[in-house]
Write a structure and sequence with these properties.
By secondary structure, the protein is mainly α. It contains three helices and no strands.
Length: 100
């Protein structure tokens, strides 16, 4: 086997294992993105579900559906950035390897 063929074999082996690593990393990233999305969806569903009675009362006294929807959207748009602002600093300081 020539040196060039040996180098090519080593290169192919390296990139094959590297591609497997990046595939695994991508799958892990997708799971990490899905879990908080479902958690946020569940939290907003609980908040909305707990307000069914109030929503019906507002509708009974003449409140518009668009107003109720707007209130829910405003609440979500306030809580979202607030959660990011409160969670990002501690999350970014979570133990990570420091270069020496």
């Amino acid at each position: 086997m020539s040196a060039a063929a040996h180098v090519q074999t080593l290169s192919d082996d390296y990139f094959a294992s590297r591609n497997k690593y990046f595939l695994l990393l991508t799958a892990f990233t997708v799971v990490v993105a899905i879990v908080p999305t479902l958690t946020i969806y569940a939290a907003m569903s609980v908040i909305t579900g707990s307000r069914v009675r109030e929503t019906k009362l507002v509708r009974a006294i003449g409140g518009a559906s668009i107003g109720i929807l707007a209130a829910a959207v405003v609440e979500a748009n306030v809580l979202g950035p607030l959660g990011v602002a409160l969670g990002l600093p501690p999350g970014s300081r979570w133990p990570a390897p420091r270069p020496r």
